[in-house]
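F.,

This is the one I mentioned.
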């Protein structure tokens, strides 16, 4: 449900250096090319695309998001809505017609490039509407949207991957949980590195993308091919042939950060479901079974064997000290 209200800055601070985040994925869905179109009529009246409002049966795909982006851009540049009626039904009528204008009193200082981009997004026929790639390559976007600063792989991150490779399966599973307890400030560099490596921006790292990042890091390794294969395999915990963001974070988070007691306590509480200060076999089984990323990290090892990795006193459960000791190893 793309609309200005669902874009929030991470901090109450100047825009420069701040992060803009999208929220409210309540009606979001993953769209795969070649599959059946969506049919549910949903969204916010002012921002919904005309094909979503088709009657009696809506059929639409990812193109609807570009329409919403066009409306958002119009609003940000003018403070007005391009399609607005006295009630929802009449707003829908205006959306279906798709007719809008650029009143000179509010668009007088807006460039022709900006207005052209809006026109390309607010096309009622989705087949004729601009794509996301075309919008990113548009003259207005290229001239006015600042490029992200380069964030290459660095030696400390590569070393973190090597340490992750050598860790126990339970430690790898725990690091997936630990990484999620960290705030944006702690993982900013890793996020930027992931984005830099993800050349096609699909949210996954392929072997060639990872290899190119390792090559550009120029860390002086004489066994680059061997390093690539072993590193990639250790990060690809689900065996998909790709590394997703969660897998990357779990493997690259800095040791000094993941050994922060507050972060570890938050992660421990995820496992310790009844808050008795111990992680039992049943609790470990529950977390592993309910989280695909964590489950893939441990493979087919039995819960009993995983518990034994950290249960130093043989009590049949893991306390917080044992949990920390396992992460330190």
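My design for it:
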């Amino acid at each position: 449900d793309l609309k200005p209200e669902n874009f929030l800055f991470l901090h109450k601070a100047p825009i420069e250096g701040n992060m803009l985040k999208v929220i409210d994925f309540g009606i979001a869905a993953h769209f795969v090319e070649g599959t059946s179109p969506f049919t549910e009529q949903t969204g916010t009246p002012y921002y919904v695309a005309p094909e979503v409002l088709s009657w009696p049966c809506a059929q639409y795909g990812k193109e609807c998001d570009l329409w919403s982006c066009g409306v958002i851009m119009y609003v940000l540049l003018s403070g007005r809505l391009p399609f607005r009626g006295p009630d929802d039904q009449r707003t829908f009528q205006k959306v279906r017609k798709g007719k809008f204008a650029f009143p000179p009193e509010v668009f007088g200082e807006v460039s022709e490039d900006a207005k052209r981009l809006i026109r390309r997004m607010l096309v009622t026929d989705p087949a004729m509407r601009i794509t996301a790639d075309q919008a990113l390559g548009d003259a207005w976007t290229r001239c006015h949207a600042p490029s992200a600063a380069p964030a290459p792989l660095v030696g400390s991150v590569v070393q973190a991957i090597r340490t992750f490779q050598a860790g126990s399966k339970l430690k790898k599973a725990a690091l997936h949980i630990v990484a999620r307890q960290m705030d944006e400030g702690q993982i900013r560099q890793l996020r930027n590195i992931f984005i830099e490596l993800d050349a096609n921006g699909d949210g996954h790292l392929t072997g060639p993308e990872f290899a190119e990042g390792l090559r550009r890091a120029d860390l002086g390794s004489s066994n680059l091919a061997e390093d690539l294969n072993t590193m990639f395999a250790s990060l690809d915990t689900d065996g998909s042939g790709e590394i997703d963001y969660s897998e990357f974070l779990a493997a690259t988070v800095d040791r000094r950060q993941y050994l922060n007691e507050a972060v570890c306590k938050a992660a421990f509480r995820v496992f310790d479901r009844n808050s008795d200060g111990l992680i039992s076999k049943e609790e470990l089984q529950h977390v592993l079974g309910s989280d695909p990323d964590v489950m893939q990290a441990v493979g087919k090892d039995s819960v009993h064997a995983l518990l034994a990795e950290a249960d130093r006193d043989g009590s049949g459960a893991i306390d917080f000290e044992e949990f920390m000791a396992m992460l330190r190893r």
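The two ends are 44 Å apart (CA to CA).

Talk soon.
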